[in-house]
Amino acid sequence: MKIKAKIPEKAKIVVKPGQKVDFTTPLAETTEKQMIYIPIAEMMGFDAKNIFHHLKQVIGDQIQKGDVLAENKSLFTTQQYLSEVSGILREIKHDTGIIAIEKEMNNNHVLNCFFIGEVSEVYDGYLELIVEDVHITKLQEEIPYFGASMYYIDPSGKYSDADLDGACVFAPEFDPMDTVKMETLGAQGLITKTKFPSETMIHQIVLEDEKDFAHVQKKEYPYVLIGHEPMTILFYK
Q1: Rounded to an integer, what distance in angstroms lies between the CA atom of residue 223 and that of residue 237?
Q2: Residue 180, helix vs strand vs coil
Q3: Residue spans of the chain under pLDDT 50
Q4: What pLDDT score was predicted for residue 75?
Q5: E strand intervals along 60-177
Q6: CATH level 3 topology of 32-107
Q7: C-alpha 215: how far from its chain's center?
């Protein structure tokens, strides 16, 4: 059985088909970028409106440190401007004579998987995951995209601090005061029958059909993922 999971579009995806993944598996690497603005017309002494006559690169070009960015020729001399950074030429302003180069910084950020299973295929913007069983249902309201493990509150209402870290908590109802503690302990969301007033930022998730709530409660699926399709949620194992 396969499910779809969204993945970052502007990142290096490091998982591969056939790989078994969990919440500790690196999913993607993102690189912080910085825009470098160069007043090249002013620096080289030509009129900004003539910038395209002097530039040796076009928007989208990959620039290496030391590449010739622009030339200004006179009768006896040729002045060149060599790039001091490597990056991609993103912008040329003919009114001010400024160009912008997007530079990649050295510090990479790693995003771990927010799902568990075996990767089947990786596509642009999503991947397919092989799982054992899944139940898909509709949401009453749209929820920001995320995935987590599930924790089912038993009738006693007791839980330990470690139970909620990174989990989506499932219960027919919640004490609003108790949800403050749950948020502090790292709970990612609350799945319940009806929304309630709360001072927390934690997501309240209400299923469209109460029959689905009863089904999930009975099966106790260990994992949850907001659906690839709008207004859907997946419970799976």
Answers
A1: 6
A2: helix
A3: none
A4: 76
A5: 62-63, 68-73, 78-82, 87-93, 98-112, 117-122, 126-130, 134-138, 147-152, 167-170
A6: OB fold (Dihydrolipoamide Acetyltransferase, E2P) (2.40.50)
A7: 31
C-alpha span between 18 and 117 (Å, rounded):
10
- pTM of the entire predicted model: 0.71
Q: What is the DSSP letter of 76?
A: S
Structure tokens at 3: 């499910």
H or E segment at 225? strand 223-226
Residue 214 has a pLDDT of 95
Alpha helices for the chain (secondary structure H): 40-44, 51-54, 161-164, 176-184, 210-219
Tokens of 14: 């490091």
In the prediction, which pLDDT does 156 show?
77
Domain boundaries, the chain: 32-107, 132-236
Q: Which residue do the tokens 């907001």 mark?
A: 226
Nearest CA-CA partner of 206 in 163, 153, 154, 170: 170
